[in-house]
Amino acid sequence: MPQEDIFGMSIKYVKGVGEARARLLSKLGIYSVNDVLNFFPRDYQDRSVLKKITELADGEECGVRASLVSNVTESRPRRNLSIIKALVSDGTAFLSLTWFNQSYIKNNLKNGVEYIFFGKVKRSGMRLEMNNPVIETAEQFGKNTGRILPVYSLTKGLTQTHLRKITENALKLTGERFEETLPQDLRESYNLSQIRYSYEEIHFPQSFQHMVQARRRLVFEELLILQLGLLKSKGISLEQKGNKLKPVDISPLLNKLSFKLTSAQKRVFEEICNDMQSEKKMNRLIQGDVGSGKTIVAVLAIYLAAKNKYQSAFMAPTEILAEQHYRSISPLFGELGVSVRLLTGSTKKKEKEEIKALTKEGKIDVLIGTHAILEDDTEFFKLGLVITDEQHRFGVRQRAKLSVKGENPDLLVMTATPIPRTLTLALYGDLDVSIIDELPPDRKPIDTYAVNESYRDRIYNFIRKNVADGRQAYIVCPLVEDSDEIEAESAEGLAERLKNNELKDLRVGLIHGKMKSSEKEKVMRAFVKGQLDVLVSTTVIEVGVNVPNATLMVIENAERFGLSQLHQLRGRVGRGKYKSYCILINQSKSDVSRKRMEIMTSTNDGFVISEKDLELRGPGDVFGVRQHGLPELKIANLYRDIDILNDVQKAVKQIIDYNLLSDDQYRPLVKKLDDIMKEKFKEISLN
Length: 687
Ligand code: ADP
Ligand code: MG
Known about the structure:
With 687 residues, the chain is of the alpha/beta class. It folds into 4 domains: 3-43 and 153-207, DNA polymerase, domain 1 (Orthogonal Bundle); 49-146, CATH 2.40.50.140; 251-278 and 293-415, Rossmann fold (3-Layer(aba) Sandwich); 447-603, P-loop containing nucleotide triphosphate hydrolases (Rossmann fold).
């Protein structure tokens, strides 16, 4: 039989399966021999150690080698309950064994024969017991005892013993036929074991070191395929050539700023310069916590491009943000001979036409805007730099669409989404990552409090006090309007109530996603100008909005938001020189909610928050990954396997740089990649 047939063969034909079990296995997603091999243990049980009975400790799981010293007795205290008892000894002590509802055992145990018993030890005083131990004769030793056994996730009707047997048979069947998918050079460079060894040792390890070694290889391969798959499905190759820019003196721009760059900002801009001044096309992600000052870094890059006679496009996910960028950038550039225009959905038709014409003629250096920049009739004269702010709102396709508007323009992507670095690397496998890991020095940490409903009056007094000091406040609600189904505060309902009752004396505004964008703009502008004291909103204000005078953020039903989202929302305050506060109203009494609130009140660091969040959800959770449409990982854990992922990143770079995928020794890997992509990357290629 040709080799792929064995691996692709239906699981039905493996010894010990048959129709009925095949149906059960299908519930676990196992249809073929290959599926069962890739159904990895979720844990292991160490049955390798045998001890003397006297050495047994209470609660440990262990094996002993012992013989019967009494007759086996069976009692039936109730219908449906049979109890088998036996006393065994290894010469050092006695051990009482009990089995429930396993009558057949009494026929299996013979006087004068040595057995291995494995189970959980119960010790009370001198008395040692095991309930339902596994039995094996000395000859069988090494099958069900005397070694490390895999523990699989199961489905009703299927036992560990079944699945172990089936896996063992599948391994026997495929044994010699495994074809190595990772070239020897690669395996040697990254200390990766051979494929057959890895599959055998991941299921039935001879020792835990072997298992770790096997797992390393399998995780490496899975992540390697993920990364190469992402690159392929996006059609992005790291080899792309870009424009080579000349260095530019940026001091005229720096002199116009009222602050000094942080060293993180300097470092990141240097990384950008290296990219833009080299032949290679820049594909860079800037990750920086809210308020870390990403915008100015983008502005510097735009300046570099403009002074090299290249145009830039700067996209934001909302009109509010685009306009905000325009307001802060155009005064800087005004006297430096860099022309800036704003183009959004609400730009008047006539002005739009004018801007598009000027852009096409090359008379505009920077076009700031929303998706409107993506419209097909926006043409650039010489587009050299594309920047997208708050990347998580943009799809890969939109990025690609903008890129083709120039001749391989450099690409800069900015995000504050504080996903841990591990996930970043995987999600943006095609991007180099720069991290701004330092906040400007004048930032005071935001004091965060988690409270319950009973604090409402005090909160409103606190808002009033802040407003009396000349500051402004946000109140964020999970819902737009009141709902019969969901018990939570709505922005419309709350704004109405506050205007008429609790905050009658203040100027209260309302903004939410169901409003027309012109209305939203109007409200936002009023808040920016200080014509509103309190802004009641939904999460529309989550991203990027910069109102330094706002110092108080109140979040209703905080338990309903993700931690990263709470952090983003909190980042709307603490952006100026004033001390800022965040108050989380938690309506839930659950332990998890309490812990989540504790995380928020104990740190202002977005990276710590997202890592703790993942921890709370459990290490096996790949929800974050699934949300982004990546294929489900079978063995790798992006959270725990960061070291392996870093090695994979290095390997991918080498593979791309030296164009190794076309090399003969990579053929098996490329084939596997293609097969997997056909199946698993469906979603991504649609993106
Ligand atoms: P984000 O990274 O969240 O996009 P912004 O770029 O909007 O942050 O910057 C937030 C605020 O910090 C802005 O008002 C900006 O002018 C200011 N800022 C940026 N860099 C510095 C710095 N090095 N020192 C002081 N303030 C800075
Ligand atoms: Mg920003």
